[in-house]
Specification:
The chain contains 11 helices and 21 strands.
């Protein structure tokens, strides 16, 4: 593979990446759909089925005939909703508000994270008023439209509530908040004396979530989503791209309901930086979710909620059955979530390079925590330099191979012209030429191939790491967002794309560095490849201009370190060539003239 092939391959890879990220955005901006011509979905949104009581043969274990079985859900059992009371569970990092309506979670205040960048900003508030978390559905009298009584509250991390439906079925719910973001819930159903109660299939909900302020990013289009763990082996389905089907993605404002008809271990609802994870101790029958979008132009949901279907129960007279749930509500931070079992850390969705992402994230945090001035911008710069040092030997060999290829370009061109009518002979002569000059034709692309996984892993880590949220660096306010300097100046308000508003210096510096690097790098004899390489700085400028500044800082630092490496190599090469030249013979001594 010569430099021409490498350049074309690199260009195609970058073009594919750019189109994947920017194609839908450009389509929505340049060709907005006409609301009058927009067709409606061919079929109404999918609806979830409610549980039905088992047949008579399925209740033999109760020891009572079918006539003695009383359903726990009847339309007449709906009790009037009383005044809402709230109980707060709190620790050093989170404050969770419980409601007596359904013994559910109204919301959570994540006290360790600011809601906005302003210095006087309050903490992040996750509100579930559009869909309460931990509330039951399909259990009339014990759902979110039913009143519970507070039995216990220590004013800190423990609370208990009780609800009774019209048939005497009692639900005792106990909440216990640990020292982090996990609530352990124990639900105990107790049947009334003298009658067997049938509890049909029912749902337990996660709160509805939307994206918050700084969470929106062009580089993270599917941050709002639902994740489902299917089995204890760790198989996770990430449903971000599938929440709203493509065939109705361009429709007007709508709500879509769907489900995954497989047994599940846990279900998560998340935005870019925060997440809820609900794990029933015994698992659930299936996962269901609801997604809403507000505008006709958007294909992405503006709000997402989910729930887990639980199996039916039959309670003998006066007996009880308990269920346990684990409910996480807090930041999508790997170091915190990884402390819990059941593969909950997989909500990070690191993708193909998960081990490498974990290592790089841990390294970045270690540098931030132990190296002055404890700044994530400095951590990104240092980890980039460390990666360059690690790959220095491989990159050096690649550069040497490229230089040797450049030196024999005239001979290669001569071979191509000489054997242009005989491709097989041409290839044989070229390989003989490589062997004669001890050149590996793929040596130049080896450094690039090896570094691709590192680049993608850093890309995934830097675009969504909550550690970088509102983390500043010199003139940068938030490393998860573009720099956006001079946003309020009129000149930078005329762009047609919102993400171009403001001045982003790092992509401009990066492109300038690329132009300089091309001047000091070995050049290609192929004019087509040379033209492609000349266009690369412009292409990269448009690719990185709307990128989070943390990504732009990484790539700019990487570019600068490549230039330093190239200059060191060039000077060493010049010194070696100077030493290899034979010393010039001394000038002959001039004869002295004899005096007259």
């Amino acid at each position: 593979m010569n430099r021409k092939d490498i350049g074309i391959l690199s260009f195609l890879i970058l073009l594919l990446m750019a189109w994947t990220m920017f194609g839908p955005v450009l389509e929505r901006k340049l060709f907005p759909p006409d609301p009058w011509e927009e067709s409606r979905p061919e079929a109404p949104p999918a609806t979830v089925k409610t549980g039905a009581p088992p047949a008579a043969g399925e209740t033999i274990a109760t020891g009572r005939p079918e006539s003695a079985i009383v359903p726990a859900v009847e339309p007449t059992s709906l009790q009037p909703l009383g005044p809402e009371k709230t109980v707060t569970l709190t620790n050093a990092v989170v404050s969770v508000t419980l409601s007596t309506h359904g013994a559910s979670v109204n919301g959570a205040v994540v006290t360790t994270y600011k809601d906005e960048m302003a210095a006087d900003s309050g903490p992040v508030t996750l509100s579930f008023t559009n869909g309460r978390a931990l509330a039951y559905a399909d259990l009339v009298g014990l759902d979110e439209f039913s009143s519970f009584a507070v039995l216990e509250s220590d004013g800190a991390q423990v609370a208990a509530m009780r609800g009774v439906d019209a048939n005497g079925l009692r639900l005792d719910r106990r909440f216990e908040l640990d020292d982090q973001y996990m609530i352990h819930v124990t639900d105990t159903f107790t049947g009334p004396p003298g009658v067997t109660v049938l509890i049909p299939e029912h749902l337990i909900k996660l709160g509805s979530m939307s994206e918050q302020g700084s969470g929106k990013s062009l580089y993270v289009p599917y941050s709002l989503g639902v994740d489902v763990l299917l089995d204890s082996g760790g198989t996770v389905k990430y449903l971000g791209k599938k929440i709203i089907p493509k065939k109705i993605g361009k429709s007007e404002k709508l709500t879509v309901e769907s489900r995954l008809g497989e047994s599940v271990e846990w279900v998560a609802v998340k935005n870019r930086f925060f997440v809820q994870i609900l794990h029933p101790g015994a698992g659930g029958e299936e996962a269901l979710w609801r997604a809403s979008k507000e505008t006709i132009k958007s294909k992405m949901p503006s709000e997402v909620a989910a729930s887990i279907r639980m199996p039916a129960l039959a309670l003998a007279p006066g007996t009880s059955v308990s269920r346990e749930y684990s409910y996480y509500v807090g930041p999508k931070k790997y170091s915190v979530i990884n402390e819990y079992r059941h593969h909950m850390s997989k909500v990070m969705d690191f993708g193909l390079f998960t081990p490498l992402c974990k290592f790089l994230l841990s390294a970045m945090n270690a540098i931030h925590n132990h190296v002055w001035p404890h700044n994530y911008g400095v951590a990104i710069i240092l980890i980039t330099i460390l990666i360059r040092i690690l790959f220095w030997p491989i990159t050096h060999k690649g550069t040497e191979s490229m230089r040797k290829m450049q030196e024999i370009q005239p001979l290669m061109q001569e071979m191509r012209e000489k054997y242009k009518d005989n491709p097989q002979k041409q290839q044989q002569e070229l390989f003989a030429l490589y062997k004669e000059h001890k050149i590996n034709p793929v040596g130049g692309c080896l450094p690039m191939v090896i570094q691709i996984p590192v680049f993608f892993a850093l890309f995934v880590v830097l675009r969504s790491a909550i550690e970088l949220r509102f983390a500043g660096f010199i003139w940068i306010d938030d490393l998860t967002q573009p720099e956006g300097l001079l946003k309020n100046i009129f000149l930078f308000q005329i762009f047609p794309f919102n993400h171009l508003a403001g001045l982003n210096l790092l992509p401009i510096v990066m492109s300038a560095m690329m132009i300089y690097q091309q001047r000091i790098m070995p050049t290609s004899a192929d004019p087509r490849q040379a033209r492609i390489m000349q266009l690369m700085p412009i292409f990269m400028l448009f690719l990185f201009y709307p990128a989070p500044s943390g990504l732009a800082l990484y790539w700019t630092t990487n570019q600068c370190s490549m230039i330093v490496q190239q200059l060191v190599y060039k000077r060493r090469k010049e010194r070696q060539e100077a030493e290899a030249k034979p010393a010039a013979p001394p000038a002959p001594a001039r004869k002295k003239r004899s005096p007259r």
